[in-house]
């Protein structure tokens, strides 16, 4: 993925009642981004905003975010990533640069997907806290300062996620039960309650996220990945209830393809961090069924064991061996 960042030379937002995050740059908050805020951990927060064909309404989203952030007093940047839009989104963003001095524009040379945009944006962020959100008017982005402040007030929390109280997405009849099933599978595998597995609005500590960015897939399931990465490694994830509006423009979500990717990504993430939790139950079930059937065979066929009983037992033993080997690899891996 080739990204060509285009950076403005802006003035910093006025310093207000919010204190900078501990360990921040003690320099004058009135100084420009070009002079002081040019590198990791030099700002309080970075809002990563992927855009793909959002031209008709992206300015409204920019205005909403910057109005809330300017009023908060946080030292921030708005990192807008154009994911090779086929409409006039990039032109609109380029023309808007003088209007939004805290905006940094990063146009992609080819379409990489929202996951790629968020991964690169998080890696390139100048803020100690990274915020993910969408540019389609669905999330209450005026509440972004609340998420940032939550992490400041709760140092034990590494990620805070906006848990949606309503579903306004496309394919609602199919999407709601499918998401519920996927979420329950994820909760079972992760061993904790997850109010919203794939919310697009979240804030997290950049330094905590860095080891997991390489795991992010290109598509929508990147939000599922970052949630499970934190939970699987004992990072505290909290949730704030949010409203969810009907999106502006055309949805890029494809139900069958993206639902399949969500399920696959949930299994992949748990396998990556805790494979024994996926494989061992299956192995024990096969062993249990195989041994039970073998006992029945011995009774019915006078100490003869059928081939399918042996196959069940051998398959269970093989899967159990793979589970133990995978667990050994995970425990010996230095992430």
TrEMBL record:
InterPro entries in UniProt: Glyco_trans_2-like, Glycosyltransferase_2, Nucleotide-diphossugar_trans
Transmembrane intervals: 278-303, 309-330
Keywords: Membrane, Transferase, Transmembrane, Transmembrane helix
Keyword Chloroplast part of the UniProt annotation: no
Domain Glycosyltransferase 2-like: 46-208
GO MF terms held by the record: transferase activity
Region (Disordered): 1-38
UniProt record similarity statement: Belongs to the glycosyltransferase 2 family.
Listed PANTHER family: RFBJ PROTEIN (PTHR48090:SF7), UNDECAPRENYL-PHOSPHATE 4-DEOXY-4-FORMAMIDO-L-ARABINOSE TRANSFERASE-RELATED (PTHR48090)
This protein's name: Glycosyl transferase
Highest classification ranks of the organism: Bacteria, Bacillati, Actinomycetota, Actinomycetes, Cryptosporangiales
């Amino acid at each position: 993925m080739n990204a060509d960042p285009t950076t403005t030379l802006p003035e910093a937002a006025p310093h207000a009642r919010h204190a900078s995050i501990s360990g921040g740059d003690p320099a004058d908050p009135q100084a420009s981004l070009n002079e002081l805020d040019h590198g990791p951990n030099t700002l309080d927060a970075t809002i990563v905003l992927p855009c793909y064909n959002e031209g008709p309404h992206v300015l409204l989203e920019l205005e909403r975010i910057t109005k809330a952030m300017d009023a908060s007093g946080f030292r921030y940047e708005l990192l807008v990533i154009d994911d090779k839009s086929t409409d006039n989104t990039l032109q609109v963003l380029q023309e808007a640069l003088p209007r939004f001095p805290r905006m940094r524009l990063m146009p992609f040379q080819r379409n990489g997907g929202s996951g790629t945009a968020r991964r690169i944006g998080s890696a390139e962020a100048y803020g100690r806290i990274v915020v993910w959100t969408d540019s389609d008017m669905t999330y209450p982005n005026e509440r972004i300062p609340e998420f940032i402040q939550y992490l400041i007030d709760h140092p034990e929390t590494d990620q805070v996620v906006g848990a949606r109280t309503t579903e306004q997405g496309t394919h609602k009849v199919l999407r709601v039960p499918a998401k519920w099933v996927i979420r329950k599978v994820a909760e079972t595998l992760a061993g904790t309650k997850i109010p919203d597995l794939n919310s697009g609005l979240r804030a997290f500590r950049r330094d905590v996220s860095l080891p997991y960015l390489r795991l992010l897939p290109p598509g929508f399931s990147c939000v599922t990945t970052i949630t499970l990465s934190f939970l699987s490694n004992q990072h505290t994830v909290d949730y704030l209830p949010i409203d969810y509006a009907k999106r502006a423009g055309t949805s890029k979500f494809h139900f069958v393809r993206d639902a399949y990717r969500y399920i696959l990504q949930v299994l992949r993430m748990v396998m990556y961090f805790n494979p024994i939790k996926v494989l061992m139950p299956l192995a024990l079930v096969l062993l249990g069924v195989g041994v039970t059937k073998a006992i029945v065979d011995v009774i019915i066929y006078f100490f003869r064991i059928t081939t399918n009983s042996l196959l069940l037992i051998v398959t269970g033993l093989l899967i159990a061996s793979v589970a133990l080997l995978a667990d050994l690899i995970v425990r010996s891996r230095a992430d």
